[in-house]
Amino acid sequence: MADDHQTQGPTTGVTPHLVIPSRGGQAALEFYTRAFGAEVLDQKAADDGERLMHAHLRINGSSVMLHDEFPEYGGEQDVVPKGVTLHLQVDDADEWWTRALLVGAVPTMPMADQFWGDRYGQLKDPFGHCWSIGAPIKAE
After folding, report:
1. What is the C-alpha to C-alpha distance for residues 91 and 133, in angstroms, rounded to an integer?
2. Which of 34, 43, 84, 130 is the Cys-Cys partner for 103 at CB 3.0 to 4.6 Å?
3. pLDDT at residue 44 above 60?
4. 3-state SS, residue 40
5. Confidence class of residue 11 from pLDDT cuts 50, 70 and 90?
6. Which pTM was predicted?
7. Around Cβ 63, how many Cβ atoms within 10 Å?
8. What is residue 26's DSSP assignment?
9. What's the pLDDT band for 90 if we cut at 50, 70, 90?
């Protein structure tokens, strides 16, 4: 077991840990893999065999963890995420944006050139989590 943890690589700094509502953990793994090129480093099913107890992903070089909601252990049920945006600084914002939209993300702030020098937009994933995507504006 300790060896498994070592192969995942270090988690340093702040690591987001997402709660996925409505038994959507496996669907979330598929979405993040297709939308953001996530690499699933580890996943463990709960004792009920349906929910995801733990998953460790690497997205764009950083760790993200997630699990299904477990209201029987004091968590909320039908969680509606709010108040947090996860930012992806990437090499081609339009490519990442389009890929996410094609697999079910919904734009909440259109992708556009911004005054601070990035091409930037925000979207919501199918599980209610907000993501922003940005990249330096390409010189023409």
Report:
1. 10
2. 34
3. yes
4. strand
5. low
6. 0.89
7. 19
8. H
9. very high
Edge-to-edge order in the sheet of strand 106-113: 85-89, 130-136, 118-124, 106-113
Measured between alpha carbons, how far is residue 57 from residues 9, 16, 28, 42, 63 in Å?
11, 10, 11, 7, 6
Q: Classify residue 80 by burial, with Cβ atoms within 10 Å: 0-12, 13-18, 19+.
A: exposed
What's the pLDDT score for residue 2? 44
106 pairs with which residues across the strands?
A: 124
24 alpha-carbon distance from chain centroid: 13
Q: What is the mean pLDDT of residues 57-66?
A: 96
Answer yes or no: are the C-beta atoms of 105 and 98 closer than 8 Å: no
Domains of the chain (ranges, CATH numbers): 15-73 (3.10.180.10), 85-136 (3.30.720.110)
CA dihedral 55, 58, 63, 64 (to 10 degrees): -50
